[in-house]
Write a structure and sequence with these properties.
It is a single chain. By secondary structure, the chain is an alpha/beta fold. It has 12 helices and 10 strands. It has 2 domains: about 130 residues, Periplasmic binding protein-like II (D-Maltodextrin-Binding Protein, domain 2, 3-Layer(aba) Sandwich), CATH 3.40.190.10; about 110 residues, Periplasmic binding protein-like II (D-Maltodextrin-Binding Protein, domain 2). α6 packs across α7. It starts with a helix and ends in an 11-residue tail after the last strand.
Length: about 290
Amino acid sequence: MTRLKWALLFGVLLALMLAGCGGQPEKVQQPAKPARPDVILATTTSTQDSGLLDVLIPAFEKKTGYKIKTIAVGSGQAIVMGEKGEADVLLTHAPDAEKKIASAGTVVSRRLVMHNDFVIIGSKEDPAGIKGKAAKDALAAIAGGKKLFVSRGDNSGTHQLEKKLWPLAAVKPEGTWYQEAGAGMGQTIKIADEKKGYTLTDRATYLAQQKNISLAILVEGDAKLLNIYHVMEVNADKFAKVNKEGGKAFGDFLLSAEGQEIIRVFGKDKFGQPLFFADGGKTEKDFGL
């Protein structure tokens, strides 16, 4: 066989090999299915109402093979679920209550995930004149003028903070001007909007609801309005039915580079600002707490 024929034959074979390689789809490695794939997450309504979980959970499930069942009930109720062993992992923003169950051994590995802040919102007319005031002065003005304030009234992290702020304002909230919704953050905001009242909310839920309401942020930037979220694994040594591996996997994902990046950029495209600030590796001491 001549050199020319060898060259032609080699070219044909090479072309066939390349075509064969290019025609085969690249295999995507799937995560191994966990022995116990179902994980129960008990969390505050703000993580759901803001839309953050709609991004975090699919990414976690795709990466690990676990399936999350979310129960968004407010931090107080989420913590009660943890105390009963009815959840595998908690994501809450009620530091005082969290420390108690951590000290009791109900949860392990309490880790700071992210923060944003609380704000006081109300109608643009601002009948109590609270715009720009410190939180305690704003609440004192609302109470003094007997202007409507709508509380969540559900022992959530938001409600727990509110209950700490009233004594600072030297006010015992009671009377027709003070109404408890007994509802999640999104619903409480809607009630306040319908009644043109004031309420305390986390910034993320407010921004997520902003296009549907007429209420404006009137009080912000007060150090007492800092809003910190921790993830905690329910102690499997206390509750045999707890999915220890699944709870830890979710906590690890939130603190991973991928999880922290999702948190860091969430909301920027839609609201022009992040709804949360990623705090992986930090502790409360970094915030002076």
